[in-house]
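Data card: per-record layout.
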Amino acid sequence: MSVNIFFCHAHKDEPLLTKLKTHLRPLQRQGLIDVWHDRNISAGTEWEREISQHIDEADIILLLISPDFIDSDYCYSIEMKRALERRELGEAHVIPIILRPVDWEGAPFNKLQTLPKDAKPVTSRAWRNADEAFSGIAENIRKVINEISTDVNSSNEKREPQPPESFDFTQQNNDQVYQIIIKEWVRRTELDNSISSTR
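The structure for this 199-residue chain is written out next.
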């Protein structure tokens, strides 16, 4: 079963989103993930409902943090709010990914473990290039996917298979069968007596 990933991002960060998707492509090719973001919405579709549906179906929600993400009322107050609600309910994993430098102290996600390592923005000089940062992000997302798969397998193992329904030949059922036989014998005896008396 593939894990559903939802990208919550500002449109100005699409070049970095595209780069991240490229690094997650091996996971897609292995059938481990399905990815979705709002650019997948078809023409004529009610976009707000479509986004809400995919947020609610996601196993992992990636918050792509940047100045434009923080500035976006829709990203910050609607998509992120719903993502964190689902995390509180234990329904989804929420991972903030720091794309570009921004002051996010006090943000609702500030207590969550962020990526890349040490919360160093992807575009910072801490990395030789963006590929190095995204490679580490992809590795950590793979670990989360493995954890989700392990939890699902453990849950399935705990479910004891139910035996198929079968007729329970208990004493009670034996008594019921015996009563049915007796009634049928009495009925047939009465029928035979009735026939004999008419001859």
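Known properties of this structure: The radius of gyration is 31 Å. Residues 3-157 form a domain with the Rossmann fold fold (CATH 3.40.50.10140).

See the next section for split statistics.
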